[in-house]
Amino acid sequence: MNSTRQEDPHGLIRDQGMITRCALEVIDAIRVQRGRPLQSRDRMALKLLTPRNAALMMKENRRHLACRQVSFEILTDDVGLGAYRLLPVGVHVLNPERGWWNDDYGVRRFLWNLYLGEDPIEGMQRILERLFKVSPQGLRTLSGNLDMHQAEQDIEATVRPDLNLYIRRHKGSVETSLRRLNQAQALHRIKDLGIDTHGQGRMALVFGSNRRYAVSFAVERA
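Below the sequence we write its predicted structure tokens.
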């Protein structure tokens, strides 16, 4: 982690350590204020902030932390199987020595950070490529329809007197098939992975360069 503080003339801080500390302060301050923690997916999203997908600005001794996110659902339709909606129920990280670390997911939509200046649709394509480990050409086959709703949600909060939080969240959906997810080697049964979802999830999407991250989900008829 780079501990050197990097600023531009406009007060924008690009230091990973400061961005991480601000994100953790947001998580802790909201837990204290509300008496309960943020939803797990929101905690996970904040922990994954980097100089590429977040802006931290210092102005008059007040820090302003901002990011953009895309919240989306996955709909599947297979001949003979019908149409289903994949509803996230857990996030999981594999520790090679201890097995899967599990956490509740919160509201039943996928959530991901966009890069600064990134178009939401391009961001969704990048996210899907990482989730399913397929090329852009294969992605067009995988996602028969990539639909980005026009709806945006702006979240603004004064977390502490010295820290403001700004989030712009876009909503979208992806249409594909269970067969295509399986062909991309992204789809796994919970019991095969050894993940415990307390009966909530049936399947999981496994992703990451080392296949250590997973999102479990329930399958609901659309």
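Residues 1-7 have pLDDT under 50 and may be disordered.
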